[in-house]
Every structure is written in structure tokens, then in C-alpha cells.
Amino acid sequence: MQKTKIAPSLLAADFGNLQRDVELVNNSDADWHHIDVMDGVFVPNISYGMPVVKAIQKHATKPLDVHLMIVDPDRYIKEFANLGATYLTVHYEACTHLHRTLQAIKVAGMKAGVALNPHTPVQLLENIIQDIDLVCVMSVNPGFGGQSFIANTFDKVRALKALITARGSKALIEIDGGVSTANAKELVAAGADVLVAGSFVFKSTDPIATIKSLKA
């Protein structure tokens, strides 16, 4: 039984002290750095672009888990590979030719992830689940940190786990949005492999201890 991976979302970090917060994650029990790239088109918010990801990569000693909340992600696949992303996740809703996009991510040397918005059913992945390395289930509406967890996520994770098992896929299930110690245990029981936590980690009084408690 593999241990649950924790991926603190740097969207909630202090951008004035980004190196400090990246090093905090390096020195914690966390497994990945979760990086949300938003374009102001696919989602209402704009987060950060390539120069900031490059700055994060310079200090990060753990894998970069890059989540693209952007339209036409195909344009930037090679750039994120060059920036050292381990996982590159695109939104199902933003990809007209999802299979082609996933193949391009893999050809570029990264693991390929697909994110699903809260309203998108997991069944839409049944013909491609065997080509996916990571499914990111959005448990809030994408675009902003600090939102409330959507309770329907538990059923969605169970359905996704069943699909992955039935198809013999190796895809990891990642939960992004509103994750805390209040729902972490139930999410893992439902089938989650990776928990993304932003505000819950970085707004806590002791982020290192908070990451440790999530990992437990």
C-alpha cells in the first residue's frame, strides 16, 4: 500500500517570499510542488507564467506537478518540459483532441495528467484512462484558492477508482481544492492517491506540521 502523496499548492504561498516557501516544501514531508498556471480565459484568475515556474524550479528539490488551467495547452507543452515539470496536467474541458495532447506530453518526457471540473463526469475518461498517468479531480471550481470543498467529490473519486481498476489503468487520483485534515482520511478511503492543499497549508501557523498531519 503506497502512502498518500501530499502536493502543497504554491498558489497559496507568499509570492514575496517564494524561495522560502519552496524550501519549506522541500524540507517537509510533502512529495510534490503543485503549480497552478491560470490564463484569465479558461478560469477567471491569472496566476503566474513561465518566469515564476522557472524560479520555483531553481529552488525545488521535489517533483513539479504543473496544473494548466488554460485554453489551448498544446502550445506550451515543450516549454513546461524545458522548465522541468514531472507531471503536466491539462483540463479535459480545454482539449479538443485529448488523446493527441496526452501523447505530446509523454513524447516531451513528462507524465500526463487530466483535470476534471466539478461538473464533468468521470465516465468521459473511460476510452482514454489507460493513457493517463494522473487524474486531477477538482473539488472546487477552478480559478481561485481558499474555496469550500464540494461534497459530491467523494462519490466521484469512488467512481473514478472503479473505472481505473476495471480498465487496468495505473492512473493516480489527485484531489485539488478545499482539502484539509477534515476530509483527507475519507478521500484516501475513497481512492485518492495525491492530495493538493494550498491555503490549508500556507495559511496555517505551522505549515510543516500541517503537511505532516495531512500525510498521516
TrEMBL record:
Name of this chain's protein: Ribulose-phosphate 3-epimerase
Presence of the UniProt keyword Isomerase in the record: yes
Pathway: Carbohydrate degradation
SUPFAM superfamilies the record matches: Ribulose-phoshate binding barrel
Cited function: Catalyzes the reversible epimerization of D-ribulose 5-phosphate to D-xylulose 5-phosphate.
EC number: 5.1.3.1
Molecular functions (GO terms): D-ribulose-phosphate 3-epimerase activity
Active site per UniProt: 36 (proton acceptor), 176 (proton donor)
Domain of life: Bacteria
Annotated InterPro entries: Aldolase_TIM (IPR013785), Ribul_P_3_epim (IPR026019), Ribul_P_3_epim-like (IPR000056), RibuloseP-bd_barrel (IPR011060)
Record-annotated membrane-spanning stretches: none
Binding-site list for a divalent metal cation: 34, 36, 67, 176
Family designation: Belongs to the ribulose-phosphate 3-epimerase family.
Catalytic reaction(s) noted: D-ribulose 5-phosphate = D-xylulose 5-phosphate
Keywords, sorted A to Z: Carbohydrate metabolism, Isomerase, Metal-binding
Cofactor, how bound (note): Binds 1 divalent metal cation per subunit.
Amino-acid positions noted as binding substrate in the UniProt annotation, renumbered to this chain: 9, 67, 143-146, 176-178, 198-199
Cofactor(s) the record lists: a divalent metal cation; Fe(2+); Zn(2+); Co(2+)
Organism: Maribacter chungangensis
